[in-house]
Every structure is written in C-alpha cells, then in structure tokens.
TrEMBL record:
Main location per the UniProt record: membrane
Protein species of origin: Aureibaculum algae
Keywords, in A-Z order: Cell membrane, Membrane, Transmembrane, Transmembrane helix
Subcellular location: Cell membrane
GO cellular component, one term: plasma membrane
InterPro entries: LeuE-type
Residue spans crossing the bilayer: 6-29, 41-65, 77-95, 107-128, 148-171, 183-200
Name of the protein in question: Lysine transporter LysE
Membrane topology: Multi-pass membrane protein
Any single biological process term in GO: amino acid transport
Length: 202
C-alpha cells in the first residue's frame, strides 16, 4: 500500500504544479488544434520526460539535506519560503491578463516538449518545497524504492495532465482565461495554507 501511496503522491504533486494553464499545457493545446491530437500527445510526452529529471534533482537535494541534522531546521525554513513564494507567484498569475494562445511549434515535437519543460525554472523549487513538506510530515519516505515511485508518479502525473489538456483542447481554448484565473487563485490559497501549516508545525 505504501508503494501505491508514493506513486499517487507523485501524481498529485505533478497535478498541483502543472494544473494552471501556462506555457507548457497551452502549447500542448495549440499544437493539438494545429496539428492534431497525436502531435499534442508527442509534445506532452517530451515535456513529461523532463519532469522525471526535475523531480529527481529536487528529491536528491532534499534527501541530502534531511540526512544532515545540522541543516534540517534550515530545510524546513526553505520549504516554508518556497510555499509562500509559490502562493505569491500563482496570485500574481491570476491577476495578470492571461494569453491563451500558446506557441506555434514545428519540428520534432518530443524534443521541443523536452526543451520547453527544461526551461521551466519553477519545477525544481516546487518539487523541493513539496517533497520537504511531505517528508517533514511523515508522508514521504526518503528511501528506495519510495523515491523512485514518487518520481515515476510525478512524470506519469504530468503526462496525464498534459493529455487531458490535449483531449479537451477545444473547451480549454474557449474558457482558458476563466480557468486560469480561478485555478491560480485556488493554487495561491493552497500554497499559502501549506506555508502556514508548515510554520505552525515547525
């Protein structure tokens, strides 16, 4: 059961990080509209492949810090800071005028998805803050195979979410501004609450 839970934890984490319409998922939508669902899925697969690496880097960093008691308190502080920065980021995104067009891409869509995902600077701090929070609260076991299962779940969750954007591309395009604004406010509130909970438990 613990194995399934860690896989599920990774999937949920990916959904939290990528749920709001942004550069990656809206590019998947535009690629689908212009080139078809298969092209959108190929782009999504490339973008998701990088999530494995980003989650791995964050987990290795969090695991190293947690194994050193002298920096464990600093680790919790770092997670709190990340949560409040994420809350601010999503709040500002909700306040901005949302551009639902995405980017028109030609060429090897799998590779393009990888490159665009790799330049997502928010991913590693996001996974670092979230995995630290999960570990501190005893939900994430920083041992194998649990770490690998969480990473697999993160990559799988991101792919599932991108594919949902692909299959609902028409609906999302029409309602993208409304969806983006409301989801960003929800995510902002969620990360603000996680930051407060982390402070109260520290």
């Amino acid at each position: 059961m613990a194995y399934v839970f860690h896989l599920f934890l990774g999937i949920i984490s990916a959904f939290l990080g990528l749920l709001a319409p942004g550069m990656l998922n809206m590019t998947a939508v535009r690629t689908t509209i212009e080139q078809g669902k298969r092209a959108g899925v190929v782009f999504s697969a490339g973008a998701s492949a990088i999530v494995f690496i980003q989650a791995s880097i964050a987990l290795v960093f969090a695991s190293y810090l947690s194994e050193n008691p002298n920096v464990f308190d600093n680790l919790k502080i770092a997670a709190i800071i990340v949560f409040f920065l994420l809350a601010l980021f999503f709040f500002l995104q909700a306040r901005k005028t949302f551009n639902a067009e995405g980017k028109s891409k030609k060429g090897n869509l799998f590779f393009i998805g990888m490159v665009m995902s790799a330049i997502n600077m928010l991913a590693i701090p996001f996974y670092f803050g979230l995995t630290t929070y999960f570990e501190v609260n005893g939900q994430l076991i920083m041992e194998q195979p649990y770490i690998t299962l969480f990473i697999v779940g993160s990559g799988l969750g991101s792919f599932i979410l991108f594919v949902l954007y692909v299959f609902f591309a028409g609906v999302i395009t029409k309602r993208a501004k409304f969806i983006a604004t409301n989801i960003n406010y929800i995510l902002s509130g969620l990360f603000f609450m996680l930051g407060l909970i982390a402070i109260l438990k520290s």
